[in-house]
């Protein structure tokens, strides 16, 4: 009789330990606590090459990379402030992937836009980091970029 109660106690302890470990794995994998999916206000942050499924928008977002970074480096006097263009691939549950070229500055003449439409949402580029330094330039930043995007329902107000 004592053997049965010891075996039963060990079995219950083992199951309790398994449930505790599952809880730890779930909280570690929780995207709300993941810094790359950090949502400060409405800004969603993605590292270069990162892919996230945004459940609330029913879309998959991938930060493909920066196709152009002509921003004026820190500590340098420039005639033009420059622009960074992020390539963001978006795909809805029932749509094909689409690459949006989002710029840090609006420039109608060069066809640079901060926002773009996809599936009834407006996807806007809020920020691109890090900023180029004068000694390294933008080429040294390849693979190290991080962007912040804002996704809102509906169309933006046009000027």
Short description:
The chain has one helix and nine strands, in the order αβββββββββ. With 159 residues, it is α+β, with helices and mostly antiparallel strands. The protein has a five-stranded antiparallel β-sheet, with no helix packed on it. It has a four-stranded antiparallel β-sheet with strand order 3-4-5-6, with no helix packed on it.
Q: Can you describe what's shown?
A:
The chain is of the alpha+beta class. It has one helix and nine strands. The chain has a five-stranded antiparallel sheet with strand order 1-2-9-8-7, with no helix packed on it. A four-stranded antiparallel sheet has the order 3-4-5-6, with no helix packed on it. Strand 1 (39-40) and strand 2 (43-47) form a beta hairpin.
Q: State the helix count.
A: 1
Write down how many β-strands occur, each being a DSSP E stretch of 2 or more residues: 9
Distance between the termini: 83 Å
Shape label? elongated
- Ranges where pLDDT stays below 50 over 5 or more residues in a row are 20-40
Question: Helix content range of the residues, please?
Answer: 10-25%
Largest β-sheet summary: 5 strands, antiparallel
Q: Secondary-structure element order, as H and E?
A: HEEEEEEEEE
Into which percentage range does the β-strand content fall? 35-45%
Q: Could you tell me the radius of gyration in angstroms?
A: 23 Å
Mean pLDDT across the residues is: 78
Q: Order the strands across the largest sheet as they lie in space.
A: 1-2-9-8-7
Helix/strand-derived class? Answer: alpha+beta
